[in-house]
Design a protein that fits this description.
This protein is mainly alpha-helical. It contains 10 helices and no strands. The chain has one domain (2-238).
Length: 239
């Protein structure tokens, strides 16, 4: 449960970054506030983003399940936490957030742009849902850091729920932005983005504590050694 809450808080606190990066797409959604399609479309758009995050969380959760079954979850959780804390500290003291703008070469940016353009022209609720689905695939270091939580979750379902909570955390800001038709001022976005390194450090610290398996309820529960308890594998596959 604490991992899900961390995902929601990380999404909520970092949603200003989402507004800055994906704001133009949210503002480009068609429709007039007087129509029901306008409001349903905004909900559909943000739901689509959250579903894409959830599916990516499931993929990373599957990878994390393999790590968990191999008996390396504690080490991966600690290592991932340390990396995130270091990234947060670097951003905090350098004043740079460039690490959030990672652009992996495997992202088919051309296809994504064509898909977004096609759906935006249609203007239906379903098409705005499609915009959200594609929007979730856009390269974003902020999302990649959130996905680290899915990797250490230890199961497909937990990874999916964690990233769904992350998406829901970004929902209020992105819905308000897409409905208001206005971008926040640069100074306001900059003030809000200053909180992101602190939240990243907190998230990394949680991963480290989980990996240490200190027996602290909700914060650092004892991680079960499935290598020594193979009868738990079937149960984990179901959860």
């Amino acid at each position: 449960m604490e991992l899900y809450l961390a995902g929601f808080i990380f999404g909520l606190a970092g949603s200003m970054h989402c507004a800055g990066m994906c704001g133009p797409i949210a503002l480009a959604l068609p429709g007039h506030p007087s129509s029901s399609t306008f409001w349903m479309g905004r909900v559909a758009y943000n739901t689509g983003r959250s579903i894409t995050y959830m599916l990516m969380g499931g993929i990373l959760g599957l990878a994390g399940l393999g790590i968990y079954l191999a008996g390396f979850q504690s080490w991966v959780s600690i290592a991932g936490g340390i990396i995130i804390v270091l990234i947060g500290l670097f951003s905090l003291f350098s004043g740079k957030l460039n690490w959030l703008h990672i652009k992996p070469v495997w992202i088919p940016s051309g296809l994504i742009k064509k898909g977004l353009s096609r759906f935006l022209k249609q203007g239906s609720v379903g098409s705005m849902f499609g915009v959200g689905l594609i929007n979730g695939l856009l390269p974003c270091g902020f999302v990649y850091i959130a996905l680290a939580g899915a990797l250490v979750s230890g199961s497909v379902m937990q990874g999916m729920i964690y990233m769904l909570m992350f998406g829901l955390g970004t929902f209020p800001m992105m819905f308000a932005l897409s409905a208001s038709g206005k971008l926040m001022s640069i100074s306001f976005r900059q003030r809000m983005q200053k909180a992101i390194p602190y939240v990243a450090i907190g998230l990394g610290a949680l991963f480290i504590l989980r990996g240490l398996s200190l027996g602290i309820p909700y914060i650092s529960p004892v991680l079960v050694d499935v290598v020594s308890n193979p009868e738990l594998i079937d149960e984990m596959m179901c959860h």
